[in-house]
Specification:
By secondary structure, the chain is α/β, with parallel strands linked by helices. About 40% of the residues lie in helices and about 25% in strands.
C-alpha cells in the first residue's frame, strides 16, 4: 500500500480510538456475549446476535485503524520551516475575490477531514487548487456551482 499523509493530531486521534476499542469496547462486548450465552438457545437470542454484530464491527474497525496507522506518513507541520507556500498540514486563510468573504482551512488527510471544524482533505477540490501556491496567489476552484476565485491571504504552520 502507498503511504497516507496524516497530521500529528490525526495520528493521535486514531491511536486514541484504537486504544479505546481494544481496552474498553472489546472487553465490554466479550462480557455481553458471555451474558447472552447464559440465556440459553443462541438461535433465537437477539442479545447474542446484537453483541456478535458489535464484535464484528469493533474488530473490523480495529483492523482498519491498524492498517491506516501502519501506512501513515505523519507530517509535523510545526517542524517544517515557514515558506508561505501551501503544503499538507498548513492552515490557510483564503479570501473569496468576489465577495471578500474570508475562510480558514487546515489541509489534512482524508480521515481527518471535517469541514465544520475547518479541516479539509488534501484531496478536496479546494485543497488541490491551493497546494503548491503561495501567499498572495489567486487560485480558481472548480465547484459544482461554477468557478470561484480565492486569494491566499496567509499560510500558517500551526
Amino acid at each position: 500500500m502507498t503511504q497516507v499523509p496524516m497530521t500529528v493530531e490525526g495520528e493521535a486521534a486514531l491511536r486514541e480510538e484504537l486504544e479505546h476499542l481494544k481496552k474498553v469496547e472489546r472487553p465490554r462486548i466479550t462480557q455481553a456475549i458471555a451474558e447472552a450465552r447464559e440465556h440459553g438457545d443462541l438461535k433465537e437470542n437477539a442479545e447474542y446476535h446484537a453483541a456478535r454484530e458489535q464484535q464484528s464491527f469493533a474488530e473490523g474497525r480495529i483492523q482498519e485503524i491498524e492498517g491506516k496507522l501502519s501506512n501513515a506518513r505523519v507530517i509535523d507541520i510545526t517542524a517544517i520551516p515557514h515558506s508561505g507556500k501551501v503544503i499538507f498540514g498548513v492552515t490557510v486563510k483564503i479570501i473569496n475575490v468576489e465577495t471578500d468573504e474570508e475562510v480558514t482551512y487546515k489541509i489534512v488527510g482524508d480521515d481527518e477531514a471535517d469541514v465544520n471544524a475547518g479541516k479539509i482533505s488534501v484531496n478536496s477540490p479546494i485543497a488541490r487548487a491551493l497546494v503548491g501556491k503561495e501567499e498572495g496567489d489567486v487560485v480558481k476552484v472548480n465547484t459544482p456551482g461554477g468557478d470561484i476565485e480565492y486569494e491566499i491571504d496567509e499560510v500558517l504552520h500551526q
